[in-house]
């Protein structure tokens, strides 16, 4: 009798659940249409264009290209240097952001005087638009009237002002440093929130057992930061690898392509060479790599949880 009543109640509840599911789908429909229009369609169009000839100034240049666009990119003498610059830029940026963000988070988690003020100030670089931050740093680093060059010469760190953005050996490291300065607050905020969730009694118990601050940090704190750290690193690897703004604003990929990355190369293919097919082919290759990285992280994280 109890089973029969349970089945009857489920049957009565099913139409209600179906109605709620339909209502939820109806409310999600505008968002789905928005995503399809602004994300899915452009991505599919890029994939389509990568297998076709296209030129912005010559409409007659069109037709199926097969793998010719990909061959054009891979045979370009600037491709391997740009790939190396992208790897260097991404690795150094993400590594520097994480280390600086973790250090700032640990410091701001301590009961220091003025902690609330410093927690507010640390966010300032992150909220500054990239274009404005890039232009400000260009002025600060200018060899003729830059404040930082003047200070370093006055302090004896430099004999003469240095053109940080105009020299082949320093252009990319300088832009990387500026990118770290702007992005580390995001790490700081996220890691600081995770630090607040670490149980204080674990630290107290470890201290009673004789564990020092460094050992407590590696044994207790870091395991609690693992999930947040992995998420931050993967997200920022993708964001940094496809970042175009900072490098273009500060160096435009120069001097002599010394700071040219793959996104800058895509822009030059499309807007300077007007070769839409090659630009879309390189964009598709970059997109495939980012998607592979995401799926590796997603399924790896899923297996670790299971």
From TrEMBL:
Every copy of the ABC transmembrane type-1 domain together lies at 83-295
The source's domain of life comes to: Bacteria
Q: Which InterPro entries match?
A: MetI-like, MetI-like_sf
Q: What's a BP term from Gene Ontology annotated to this protein?
A: transmembrane transport
- Membrane protein topology class: Multi-pass membrane protein
Q: Name one GO cellular component term.
A: plasma membrane
Q: Where in the cell is it found?
A: Cell membrane
Entry similarity comment: Belongs to the binding-protein-dependent transport system permease family.
Q: What is this protein called?
A: Sugar ABC transporter permease
Q: Which organism is the protein's source?
A: Labrys okinawensis
